[in-house]
Inverse folding.
């Protein structure tokens, strides 16, 4: 049996409220849980974007897969002094992203469509519209299944790299130790080693979410102690609680 977990660092933004499963875990098992993003997003300057030779207004529709995509689409338009026409069609993977558009446009007066949270559900929505060329604002770490699905369904589109994921400065954590580190993306693990190239796992437990994150951990010879999702624990919080319960 492993040593008891007394402290956990979760590499996401602090939810800022008590309505999250990690708060319940901390309270139930009397564990210190901190949050710290290991990566962050930076916008690509308009001068660099122009090198992609993409005309934003040449696309009567735009696909949004995240709030970051929304923010940087409208940022880029502003930097390039473009006026987005009222007739622009917006295709969002979820209702939450669609409602986020209210930050930039009058929601009720625009052509906004959204899926049920998955990209495949959005594909169905897009196929019901006219076959116009769509713009896909994205980061340098775009999930390649997204353009693959668009191509598979014959949806004309342009990938527009408008923002990038970079490693955050974690130097203030150099002398801070946690019993468990929780990672959600390969970039989180990349940031760990960029900030601490001599990191040794030793007794530190590593929790990872998703296969690509697990692969990145394995590539760096990290021992994976908690893996999610799995048949018994569909969420990271459930997987962590199961591990804590079995090693308390």
């Amino acid at each position: 049996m492993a040593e008891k977990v007394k402290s956990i660092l979760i590499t996401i933004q602090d939810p800022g409220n008590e309505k999250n499963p990690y708060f319940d875990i901390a309270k139930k098992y009397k564990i210190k849980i901190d949050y710290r993003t290991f990566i962050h997003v930076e916008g690509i300057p308009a001068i660099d974007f122009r090198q992609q030779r993409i005309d934003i207004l040449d696309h009567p529709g735009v696909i949004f897969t995240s709030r970051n995509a929304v923010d940087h689409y409208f940022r880029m338009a502003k930097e390039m002094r473009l006026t987005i026409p009222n007739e622009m069609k917006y295709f969002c993977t979820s209702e939450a992203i669609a409602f986020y558009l209210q930050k930039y446009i009058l929601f009720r007066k625009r052509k906004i469509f959204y899926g049920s949270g998955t990209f495949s559900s959005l594909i169905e929505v897009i196929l019901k519209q006219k076959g116009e060329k769509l713009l896909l604002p994205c980061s340098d770490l775009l999930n390649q299944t997204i353009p693959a699905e668009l191509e598979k369904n014959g949806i004309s589109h342009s990938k527009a790299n408008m923002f990038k994921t970079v490693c955050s400065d974690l130097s203030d954590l150099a002398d801070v130790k946690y019993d468990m580190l929780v990672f959600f993306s390969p970039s989180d693990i990349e940031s760990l080693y960029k900030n601490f190239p001599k990191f040794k796992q030793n007794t530190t437990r590593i929790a990872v979410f998703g296969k690509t994150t697990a692969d990145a951990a394995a590539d760096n010879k990290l021992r994976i102690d908690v893996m999610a999702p799995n048949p018994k624990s569909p969420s990271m919080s459930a997987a962590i609680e199961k591990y804590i319960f079995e090693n308390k």
The longest helix spans residues 67-79.
